[in-house]
């Protein structure tokens, strides 16, 4: 009489031919271990996909770094070159007059503004323009959304990779903005590192979130409208060339209308924060700058993620 075979959780009994003539299957075929493949959790797979999407964008940036630097430097360099080098050299008054003292005061105001406007343009170029192309003629977005992660995480990867490019742009532009001046003109700079190390990343994420919103709101054929009706007003009313505190005299009936209207412009808070980080010039209070920038970030990112999902699903 054959003894019964004990079944365990690790073995699986299978019928096998009688190879010994005893009515009992061959010993080697009595049981085989069950092999199970460990599976990753959804969160782990999403983190891996997010990291891969960001690394992909940064790899592309590394391969085209020369083009990235050239694109980043053109506008800030021209601003600084014209206003802080050419104008003083030809005797063209800037900074409201006052000779070299007025020109140096204007340089102190302009250098942080140039860093702020660079962050804004980089956020729009790295996210909005890329998304308009990926949703348009390249259709690259169809490959990205096949990653093993939620759709919103694909959009978040674009925002974070664009923010990394914004930080790099700020680091590239600042030395040039600080030194390209005419003789006798100098910016009075004073670093406050805790503001620099917190405000620049926050500003970069806020502007790339704006880029996500713009890139999912405007079709590729309407990019010109985006620059004409959104980017240019943000630029000229964003405090790049002047401090927000200096707008108080622009009044109608005693009401400082311009100083009030520009408060809806996120760039004004970035530039005011940059002046607090890089100079001793008068600026908006930081307890206003930080909360409002965080509010803009949440608003832009929320609307951008909603628009992104709608465009992908449609």
From TrEMBL:
The chain crosses the membrane at residues 68-90, 110-131, 151-179, 191-214, 223-242, 284-305. It comes from the Bacteria. Residues 67-311 form the ABC transmembrane type-2 domain. The keyword Cytoplasm does not apply. It is found in: Cell membrane; Membrane. InterPro entries: ABC2_TM, ABC2_TM_bact-type, Nod_factor_ABC_transporter. One of its GO terms (molecular function) is ABC-type transporter activity. Keywords: Cell membrane, Membrane, Transmembrane, Transmembrane helix, Transport. Its main location: membrane. GO terms for cellular component: plasma membrane. Residues 1-43 are annotated as: Disordered. It is a multi-pass membrane protein. Residues 10-24, 31-43 have a biased composition (Low complexity). PROSITE patterns: ABC_TM2. Belongs to the ABC-2 integral membrane protein family. This is Transport permease protein. The lineage of its organism: Bacteria, Bacillati, Actinomycetota, Actinomycetes, Catenulisporales.
């Amino acid at each position: 009489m054959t003894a019964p075979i004990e079944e365990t959780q690790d073995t699986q009994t299978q019928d096998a031919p009688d190879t010994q003539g005893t009515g009992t299957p061959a010993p080697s075929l009595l049981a085989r271990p069950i092999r199970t493949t460990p599976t990753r959790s959804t969160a782990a797979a999403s983190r891996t996909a997010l990291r891969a999407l960001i690394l992909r964008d940064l790899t592309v940036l590394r391969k085209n770094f020369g083009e990235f630097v050239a694109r980043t430097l053109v506008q800030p360099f021209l601003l600084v070159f014209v206003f802080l080098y050419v104008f003083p050299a030809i005797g063209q008054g800037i900074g409201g007059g006052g000779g070299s003292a007025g020109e140096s005061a204007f340089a102190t105001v302009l250098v942080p503004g140039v860093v702020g406007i660079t962050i804004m343009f980089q956020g729009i170029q790295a996210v909005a323009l890329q998304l308009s192309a990926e949703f348009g003629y390249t259709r690259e977005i169809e490959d990205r959304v096949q990653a093993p992660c939620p759709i919103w995480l694909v959009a978040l990867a674009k925002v974070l990779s664009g923010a990394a490019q914004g930080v790099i742009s700020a680091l590239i532009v600042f030395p040039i903005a600080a030194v390209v001046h005419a003789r006798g003109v100098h910016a009075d700079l004073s670093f406050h590192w805790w503001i620099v190390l917190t405000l620049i990343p926050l500003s970069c994420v806020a502007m790339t979130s704006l880029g996500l919103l713009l890139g999912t709101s405007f079709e590729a054929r309407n990019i010109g409208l985006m620059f004409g009706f959104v980017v240019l007003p943000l630029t000229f009313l964003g405090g790049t060339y002047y401090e927000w505190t200096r707008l108080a005299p622009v009044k109608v009936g005693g009401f400082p209308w311009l100083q009030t209207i520009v408060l809806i412009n996120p760039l004004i808070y970035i530039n005011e924060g940059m002046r607090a980080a890089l100079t001793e010039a008068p600026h908006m209070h930081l307890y206003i700058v930080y909360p409002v920038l965080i509010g803009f970030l949440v608003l832009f990112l929320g609307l951008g993620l909603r628009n992104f999902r709608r465009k992908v699903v449609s």
